[in-house]
Amino acid sequence: QVQLVESGGGLVQAGGSLRLSCAVSGRTVSSTAMGWFRQAPGKEREFVAVIIWSGGTIYADSVKGRFTISRDYAKNTVYLQMNTLKPDDTAVYYCASQLPGPKSKSDSSQYDYWGQGTQVTVSS
């Protein structure tokens, strides 16, 4: 059984940093695409970043240059380092797993396992 557990969310002032973690069991992070998505109140879930099996990364334009996605094979964990946070980054952040294949990496419907989410709140 595949499980994803996020942690690391919280309240931070604008300009601050947070690091989110996604601990994975039942699947290795090296064999799947691991993505981060977020959903703000009243808005649709949106793509944030993904790291694919080869190590390549893709970011949403809104976070490029501020967020960094990475993975630790030994801990089977994926991270999202978020710097220079803005109030618009406030949302519930979810990690998700996608098996390899010719699938869209930014389409949430193409991911088959999801974590429960962690709240990130950025105050102005």
General description of the model:
With about 120 residues, the chain is mainly β. The protein contains no helices and 11 strands. It is globular, with a radius of gyration of 13 Å. It starts with a strand and ends with a strand.
Task: Spell out the key features of this protein.
four-stranded antiparallel β-sheet; globular
Topology of this structure?
Blueprint (H helix, E strand, L loop, with lengths): L2 E5 L2 E4 L4 E8 L7 E7 L6 E6 L5 E3 L7 E6 L4 E6 L8 E8 L14 E2 L3 E6 L1
Parallel strand pairs: 2-11
Antiparallel strand pairs: 1-3, 3-8, 4-5, 4-9, 5-6, 7-8, 9-10, 9-11
Kindly name the structural category: mainly beta
Unreliable stretches: none
| Oligomeric assembly | single chain
Alpha-carbon distance between the two ends: 40 Å
**Residue share in helix:** under 10%
Question: Could you give a short account of the major beta sheet?
Answer: 7 strands, mixed
Structure described in brief:
By secondary structure, this protein is an all-beta fold. The protein has no helices and eleven strands.
